[in-house]
Write a structure and sequence with these properties.
Number of strands: 4
Strand content: 5-15%
Mean pLDDT: 75
Structural class: alpha+beta
Distance between the termini: 54 Å
Number of domains: 2
Strand order of the largest sheet: 2-1-3-4
Shape: elongated
């Protein structure tokens, strides 16, 4: 990465997309709040599963200790996978809802204006879903009139269900605020907590 591009990225991180970062923080706060409910239910269910596994162990006295231990591990792993899947679904759903037309209509223009402080508007490209682009086309023509006139592109992208991507047209630098990208980031943050929860539940059930 050349020095000029690195300086551009560093300055963008310092100056730009404050509104987008606040919105991302709000999304993760909302997701964590709802995740707490799932985690509480998961803790109770995990404890019950372990108790049931112990009862099953007594009924399997003829089975080898190794087979019993493996069965318990499999039960916990299966339960963990189901909770992770539920959390991932929740995060993706809530992230998509949070990236509403009104939110995008505010964030995208502010993000673009942050970029054009250091990048020529003609080099910028904004991608979002076809549905959102149609809904916000008039908003962008008003709020980003100057940037569009200079050559900035705003195009639909079939791979984006919600949110947006912004970057230079050659792809050398970009930010991904699509629902999938944000959901992946939040899931990476929350899913390790599920593993910790399983450890706590296992201890409590002993």
């Amino acid at each position: 990465m050349d020095v000029q591009l690195q300086e551009l990225i560093d300055k963008i991180k310092k100056d730009g997309v404050t509104a987008a970062e606040k919105e991302a923080a709000k999304i993760i706060a909302d997701a964590e709040k709802k995740a707490e409910t799932i985690k509480k239910n998961a803790e109770d269910q995990a404890a019950q599963i372990i108790k049931d596994a112990k009862a099953e162990t007594k009924r399997m006295e003829k089975a080898s200790d190794e087979a019993i231990i493996q069965a318990g591990r499999n039960m916990l792993l299966s339960f963990k996978d189901s909770i992770v899947a539920e959390l991932d679904g929740l995060i993706k759903d809530e992230t998509g809802k949070a990236l509403s037309k009104d939110v995008l209509g505010k964030i995208i223009p502010e993000t673009v204006k942050a970029w054009v402080k250091d990048t020529d508007a003609s080099e910028l490209s904004v991608l979002l879903s076809e549905k959102d682009l149609k809904a916000l086309e008039s908003t962008f023509k008003t709020k980003l009139k100057a940037e569009i006139k200079k050559g900035m592109e705003i195009k639909p992208d079939k791979t984006i269900a919600a949110g947006f991507r912004i970057g230079v047209k050659n792809g050398a630098a970009f930010y991904d605020y699509s629902a999938d990208a944000l959901a992946e980031m939040f899931a990476a943050y929350l899913n390790p907590k599920v593993a910790d929860l399983m450890k706590i539940a296992a201890k409590d059930a002993q």
